[in-house]
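Saturday, quiet lab. Running sequence design on the structure tokens for the scaffold JK sent over.
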């Protein structure tokens, strides 16, 4: 009796699309919600942070998901151009999100410095 042994999907094939498709989106969604929700600043500062973090959200979401899909299709089939396209799309969306996060945090830092300056002026 001959038994054929088939191998299942390897971790390398499912890890990249899983990381991009789930973990990165959870992180981006979390900081988009949490950065304006905590820390110093009045409602105007938080509104400004929300508008910064929400800039281009639909194109970033689409690019990240298309990147995950392209990697999920390219890795098992061995099409390196598709994997490269997927990684580029997902990477561009992540870099854009990180850039917006830095801008939003800097708005908070500017607001905190202004608040400290106002407190110092009122005591003088």
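Result came back. Writing it out in full:
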């Amino acid at each position: 009796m001959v038994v054929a042994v088939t191998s299942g999907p390897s971790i390398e094939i499912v890890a990249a699309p899983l990381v991009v498709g789930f973990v990165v989106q959870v992180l981006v969604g979390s900081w988009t919600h949490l950065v304006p929700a905590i820390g110093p600043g009045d409602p105007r500062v938080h509104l400004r942070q929300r508008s910064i973090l929400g800039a281009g959200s639909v194109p970033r979401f689409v690019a990240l998901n298309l990147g995950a899909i392209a990697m999920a299709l390219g890795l098992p089939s061995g099409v390196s151009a598709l994997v490269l396209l997927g990684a580029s799309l997902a990477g561009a969306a992540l870099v854009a999100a990180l850039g917006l996060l830095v801008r939003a945090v800097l708005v908070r830092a500017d607001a905190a410095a202004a608040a400290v300056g106002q407190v110092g002026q009122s005591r003088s």
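Notes for JK: The chain has a mean pLDDT of 84. Residues 59 and 93 are 8 Å apart (CA to CA). Ask whether to fix the surface positions before the next round.
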